Amino acid sequence: MNLMKTAMLLATLTAIFMGVGYLIGGGNGAFIAFLVAAAMNLFSYWNADKIVLRMHNAHEVDARSAPEYFRIIERLAARAGLPMPRVYVIDDAQPNAFATGRNPQNAAVAATTGLLERLTPEEVAGVMAHELAHVQNRDTLTMTITATIAGAISMLANFAFFFGGNRDNNSPLGPIAVLLAAITAPIAAMLVQMAISRTREYSADRRGAEICGQPLWLASALAKIANAAHRIPMYSAERNPATAPLFIINPLSGERMDNLFSTHPATENRIAALQEIAREMGAGGGRSFEPATPPPASPAPSGPWGNAGRRTARGPWG
């Protein structure tokens, strides 16, 4: 089902890409846009996860460089019956996280240092269980490719502003078409993203609650992340707004037009749904996941985050 959804989504985004190309350069523009979109679709299937991780300057960590964080992912993956994903940290003060990869065998999860500093181990487990649920539901291919292609559509629309107004261009409608393309293309891409995102988040919340065994851990984490995201900007997301649907909470500050097309359900609604799931699972919330216990004391090579090299008394690893 997700494979068909991904194919339909790619077809829609390719059509938007070609439409913008036609408005900018007529038939030749549409043909060139088709060739670019086809090449991008193929490239994105194999490399979109690497592109997104690079956009946010994520660095990979392991059991030695980030023992607590890595062991939580390790135990959650085992509970979910998933292969161990690659584990990344993003040096950013805003608490947030996302998953990426074309399938469970090639998945990666990433959390910001803000998330690891500000949340308890239980809340971190709830968040990362949600991200592993995306991996298990095979949402990550759709999410990552959509982010890559939608970003390209936005860039094509921006290109129209600089070159489309030239008298020598082949646009059938002239400068008006160029302006229309520049305005509508990013909106159309965001609407496509929004169409696939809302139910996907509710599904991942439920499955993540089942994986960690405690829905209220994720509910508590969502409240903290949403509150901080409004106050702490994530500059890598502001530079690449098409990647916003990947994150567990919309990382955009709301200062850009992109934020008008939020791809996430209201946090209050997600928390209410998780509270209902907790009631369904019983007062204890189901079979509890125990966060990884600290290893025996030993010199840390560079701090709990890998190369960030710092500890904090506020966070679960301090």
Topology:
Blueprint: H1 2-55, E1 58-61, H2 67-80, E2 86-90, E3 97-100, E4 108-112, H3 113-118, H4 121-136, H5 139-163, H6 175-212, H7 215-229, H8 235-239, H9 267-281
Parallel strand pairs: 2-4
Antiparallel strand pairs: 1-2, 3-4
Helix pairs in contact: 1-5, 1-6, 2-4, 4-6, 4-7, 5-6, 6-7, 6-9, 7-9
Active site: 131
Cofactor: Zn(2+)
Transmembrane segments: 7-24, 30-48, 141-164, 176-196
Question: Would you mind describing this structure in some detail?
Answer:
The protein is mainly α and 318 residues long. It has one domain (2-281). It has nine helices and four strands. It has a four-stranded mixed β-sheet, with helices on both faces. Helix 1 crosses helix 5, helix 1 (2-55) crosses helix 6 (175-212) and helix 7 (215-229) runs antiparallel to helix 9 (267-281). One of its GO terms (biological process) is proteolysis. This is Protease HtpX homolog.
Features:
318 residues, mainly alpha, four-stranded mixed beta sheet, 9 helices, 59% helix, elongated, disordered C terminus
Please provide the count of β strands: 4
CA-based gyration radius: 21 Å
Order of strands, widest sheet: 1-2-4-3
pLDDT averaged over residues = 78
| Class by SSE composition | mainly alpha
> What ranges have pLDDT less than 50 throughout 5 or more consecutive residues?
256-261, 293-318
* Percent helix: 55-70%
What global shape is seen? elongated
